């Protein structure tokens, strides 16, 4: 199968937050000649993001329809994979950290932006606001295509959907949020229509995985929907140059075009994602803001067709990767190769992880 050679650069940083709730993964599927790259931006705790990192891709690729040549069947498989992951969370939520009040189960949830490169196909499924962009070269001019749209509660379609599930959107400060309709404590016995509820403006994204608190027992729907938007498109050699997947720690301080231009100017470096993360950190710092968790995956697509899919991956702070994280000199890993668990553990053991709170966000920036 003719495909793309992909150089993947992965990096993440805790920023100025007390906890790291971003997770990422890089997975090479040798049997099906494809690679999956994903970013998960957790909220309300790390539990949902960590759970998705370990389970979402597995739940997708176990769907028989996912490897069909029929795009509608692929879409159905992606939807089922997201739904299976949401359902399986019900069996794990008791193990997750409680809401900080101690009165409620975990309120952890996560965005999920998942990108699959299969031959010359780009498959994207996402919930939340971790954005995916595609950079194309048209007559020597770079153009940025935003593949995903942020799921915000105040967008007309999302607000209509939220209200149809029995939920509502309220504003806290300048931010529209999905309201958490919770039973007023203390409460004993089953929840009935006569039960007293209180409404709290809670979440600034309208779709995510893991927000089980948003399930409405009367409409039997989630106010914060786990249903992904899906995009499947052909990639063109020599035209499609970069795919960028990042949490909002990047997009809150850089525009799509700024990210594209930065990546293009640094694309010769193996650690281009790390450089992008530190550029975002610098911009947070320049504004005097406390930086969010930041995760970025940069895929650089080889302009020439390859006889088979090939992935080369460089990273720092990578949470889950079953292809090798390579150090210089560069080597290429054919996607057909199956790596042993010892290869993986030995390689990941040497990867530097950004997990501590920085004392200065301008720490040791790479030379630009």
CA radius of gyration: 21 Å
Low-pLDDT segments: 322-368
Provide the spatial order of strands within the biggest beta sheet.
Answer: 8-7-15-16-1-17-19
Q: Report the total helices.
A: 7
Number of strands: 19
Integer average pLDDT: 85
Shape: globular
Any idea how many domains? 2
Can you characterise this structure?
This protein is an alpha+beta fold. It has two domains: 5-154 and 226-349, PPM-type phosphatase domain (Phosphatase 2c, domain 1); 156-222, no CATH class. Helix content is 22%, strand content 31%. A seven-stranded mixed β-sheet has the order 8-7-15-16-1-17-19. The longest helix has 19 residues, at 71-89. It starts with a strand and ends in a 19-residue tail after the last helix.
Properties at a glance:
7-stranded mixed β-sheet; 19 strands; 7 helices; disordered C terminus; 2 domains; alpha+beta; 368 residues; 31% strand; Phosphatase 2c, domain 1
Quick summary:
The protein is 22% helix and 31% strand. The chain is an alpha+beta fold.
Write the layout of secondary structure elements.
Layout: E1 5-13, E2 22-29, E3 34-43, H1 47-61, H2 71-89, E4 109-110, E5 112-118, E6 121-127, E7 131-138, E8 141-146, H3 156-164, E9 169-172, E10 175-183, E11 197-203, E12 215-216, E13 221-222, E14 229-234, E15 240-246, H4 248-251, H5 256-266, H6 272-286, E16 294-301, E17 310-316, E18 320-321, E19 333-334, H7 341-349
Parallel strand pairs: 1-17, 2-18
Antiparallel strand pairs: 1-16, 2-3, 3-4, 3-5, 5-6, 6-14, 7-8, 7-15, 9-10, 10-11, 12-13, 15-16, 17-19
Helix pairs in contact: 1-2, 5-6
């Amino acid at each position: 199968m003719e495909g793309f050679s992909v150089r993947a650069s992965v990096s993440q940083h805790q920023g100025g937050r007390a906890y790291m709730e971003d997770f990422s993964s890089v997975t090479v599927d040798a049997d099906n000649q494809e690679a999956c790259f994903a970013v998960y931006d957790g909220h309300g705790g790390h539990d949902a993001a960590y759970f998705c990192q370990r389970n979402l891709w597995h739940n997708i690729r176990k769907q028989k329809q996912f490897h069909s040549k029929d795009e509608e069947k692929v879409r159905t498989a992606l939807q089922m994979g997201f739904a299976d992951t949401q359902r399986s969370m019900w069996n794990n939520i008791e193990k997750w950290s409680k809401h900080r009040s101690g009165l409620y189960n975990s309120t952890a949830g996560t965005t999920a932006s998942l990108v699959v490169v299969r031959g010359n196909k780009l498959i994207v499924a996402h919930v939340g606001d971790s954005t995916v962009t595609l950079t194309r070269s048209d007559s020597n001019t770079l153009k940025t295509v935003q593949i995903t749209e942020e799921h915000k509660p105040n967008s007309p379609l999302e607000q209509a959907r939220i209200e149809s599930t029995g939920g509502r959107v309220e504003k806290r400060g300048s931010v529209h949020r999905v309201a958490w309709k919770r039973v007023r404590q203390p409460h004993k016995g089953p929840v009935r229509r006569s039960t007293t509820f209180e409404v709290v403006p809670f979440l600034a994204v309208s779709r995510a995985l893991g927000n089980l608190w948003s399930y409405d027992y009367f409409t039997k729907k989630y106010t914060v929907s786990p249903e992904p938007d899906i995009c499947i498109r052909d990639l063109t050699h020599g035209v499609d140059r970069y795919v960028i997947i990042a949490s909002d720690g990047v997009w809150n301080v850089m525009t799509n075009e700024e990210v594209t231009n930065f990546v293009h100017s640094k694309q010769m470096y193996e650690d281009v994602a790390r450089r992008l993360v530190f550029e975002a950190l610098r911009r947070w710092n320049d504004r005097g803001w406390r930086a969010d968790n930041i995760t970025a995956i940069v895929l650089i697509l080889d302009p020439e067709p390859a006889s088979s899919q090939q992935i080369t991956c460089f990273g720092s702070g990578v949470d889950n990767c079953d292809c090798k994280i390579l150090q210089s000199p560069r080597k290429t890993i054919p996607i057909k190769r199956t790596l042993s668990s010892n290869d993986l553990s030995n390689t990941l053991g040497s990867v530097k992880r950004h997990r501590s709170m920085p004392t200065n966000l301008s720490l040791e920036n790479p030379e630009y």
